[in-house]
Design a protein that fits this description.
Strands 3, 13, 14, 15, 16, 17, 20 and 21 form an eight-stranded antiparallel beta sheet that branches. A three-stranded mixed beta sheet has the order 1-2-4. It has two domains: about 260 residues, Glucose Oxidase, domain 3; about 140 residues, FAD/NAD(P)-binding domain. The termini are far apart. β5 and β6 form a beta hairpin. It contains 14 helices and 22 strands. The longest helix has 18 residues. It is an alpha+beta fold.
């Protein structure tokens, strides 16, 4: 089959399809009535055992091998190169190939690990059309975790269709170990650091209305996520000097904590109507299916399909730069408005009047976003939420918005294939009144729409990045140790030095697996946690 080119066309005007690659059209200020309430992106967090895997979309997508080669280059350590991290991915994984029609390359997967990975069943006919459409434009149906471009049913962290969060995966089977205590309901407020020895000596936290301090014998491992970890570090005096001084926090170490928040920006404005109607069953039927490991309740948000593609910027390299996420019918409701924080006007324009049992959604994801945001403290009160600025679509070369626009055109091309035309597929919803100054579906219209509806994919990372030089923004070294502080490491998505062409849960688990080996190598004695209160 011919190599896919985004400049080929299926009954789409070529002039409106070629991406704007230098700068986005100048939008008139009167058109910028933002699509989000108070111009705010919502950033939910999971605050139980298992963290945000309690609420995430469960897609198991590690990232491309080139991402990890770049990671290793940036931190000067082959530990983070692809061949090394692949072993850790396989170590943690238990892949169960329960859909024989779905692509699967065993040499890239593990069996017997703690983290279950499987395909959703049964497939929606709309998902099958999505996969067939790719074949028509010259892309294969592939195992995307084998570093290939193309589409696939989503690989999910479920066990017989039930959510398999990281708490269930890694803690349930060891919860009764004598050297493990999990204090649910506790809230870390500070890492106490000895200024003379520049060492972490313990952790302060609150529990049931009381304050506690636990002394550390060896080291503190901070794994509070891309928002929580920088917040705790800054509260402890580790962070940007000027920012901490403004809040009256005593400086221990001047590091660029929270200065490089990264995320996969995504566009949520593509809904497509079809002549296929997804059956709506009684709730009892859905529950019985769920208990049998199948059906719509076994996949969060009905995220059933994904596709990975080159952009103009990576053309010919085999490196994915765009992702499409395919959400079949019956996945749209008023919850969409709440979960995305849409204004009433935007929700009415796009979702309110669609035929839910017939409409599928394609999310467009920018895999290598260049825009950089920040995490800052609101105050030195540890109970105040941090101030999060995603800063989407702010990169000076406008690459992010160009890539998302190209992804929109790719989605429009896919629905012009025979596979989707057989379902009488049509773009549904719109135009956005906020972009009414522009011709509907013109290039200018889409760039305006991107300014309204580009939001986070709940993939925050990079706020405490790994690197070799703290003067160049690094917060931890390649062994996850915080620069300038002894006995303190960070191990979560905040340490990623690059945005990956995937979803962060799998590589976050990989970071944990690496940390476990580092700890076992450096410490080989056990101790009683409770004896050090």
């Amino acid at each position: 089959r011919p190599r896919f080119s985004p400049f080929s066309s299926y009954e789409i005007d070529e002039t409106s399809y070629v991406p704007q690659l230098i700068s986005y059209p100048n939008l008139r200020k009167s058109s910028l009535q933002h699509g989000l309430v108070n111009r705010v992106c919502l950033y939910p967090r999971g605050k139980g055992v298992g963290g945000s895997t309690l609420i995430n979309g469960l897609v198991y997508a590690r990232g491309h091998k080139s991402d990890f080669e770049e990671w290793a280059r940036l931190v000067g350590d082959k530990r983070w190169a692809y061949d090394s991290v692949l072993n850790y991915f396989k170590k943690s994984e238990n892949f169960v190939h329960r859909d024989p029609r779905a692509p699967y390359e065993p040499r890239y997967h593990g069996e017997g690990g703690f983290l279950r990975v499987e395909y959703h069943l049964p497939r929606s006919p709309q998902l099958n059309a999505f996969l067939e459409a790719h074949k028509e434009i010259g892309l294969d149906v592939v195992d995307y975790n084998a570093n290939k471009l193309g589409a696939s049913p989503a690989q999910l962290n479920t066990i017989n269709g039930k959510r398999f969060d990281n708490g269930k995966a890694f803690l349930d089977s060891v919860r009764y170990r004598s050297n493990l205590e999990v204090l649910t309901g506790s809230y870390v407020t500070k890492i106490r650091i000895n200024k003379d020895t520049r060492s972490a000596v313990g952790v302060e936290f609150s529990l049931n209305g009381k304050n506690y301090f636990v002394k550390v014998v060896k080291e503190v491992i901070l794994s509070a996520g891309a928002f929580g970890s920088p917040q705790i570090l800054m509260l402890s005096g580790i962070g940007p000097k000027k920012h901490l001084e403004q809040l009256g926090i005593q400086i221990i170490t001047d590091l660029e904590v929270g200065s490089t928040l990264l995320d996969n920006s995504a566009f949520y404005g593509l809904n497509f109507d079809t002549n296929y109607t997804e059956p709506i069953k009684p709730l009892r039927n859905y529950i019985n299916e769920y208990l049998s490991g199948v059906g719509p309740l076994t996949v969060p948000g009905s995220n059933q399909g994904v596709g990975f593609y080159e952009s103009y910027y990576t053309r010919g390299s085999g490196i994915p730069d765009i992702e499409l996420m395919m959400i079949p019918a019956n996945a749209t409701s008023q919850f969409s408005q709440k979960s995305f924080g849409l204004t009433d006007q935007t929700y009415e324009d796009l979702w309110k009047f669609i035929n839910v049992p017939q409409t599928f959604i394609l999310y467009v994801v920018n895999l290598h976003a260049k825009s950089v945001g920040t995490v800052r403290l609101k105050s030195k009160n540890p109970y105040d939420y941090p101030l999060i600025n995603s800063n989407f679509l702010s990169d000076p070369e406008n690459r992010d918005i160009n890539v998302l626009y190209e992804g929109i055109q790719l989605a429009l091309q896919l629905v012009q294939t025979k596979a989707f035309k057989a379902m009488n597929t049509r773009l549904q919803g719109g135009p956005l009144r906020a972009c009414s100054l522009y011709q509907y579906l013109s290039k200018e219209y889409w760039y305006c729409a991107l300014r309204q509806l580009t939001v986070d994919l709940y993939h925050p990372l990079g706020s405490c990045p790994m690197g070799t030089d703290p003067k160049k923004g690094a917060v931890v070294n390649s062994k996850l140790k915080v620069f300038g502080i002894n006995n303190l490491r960070v191990a979560d998505a905040s340490v990623f030095p690059v945005v990956l062409a995937g979803h962060p849960n799998a590589p976050t688990v990989m970071v944990g697996e690496q940390l476990a080996d580092l700890i076992k190598y450096e410490h080989n004695t056990e101790f009683n946690f409770w004896s050090y209160f």
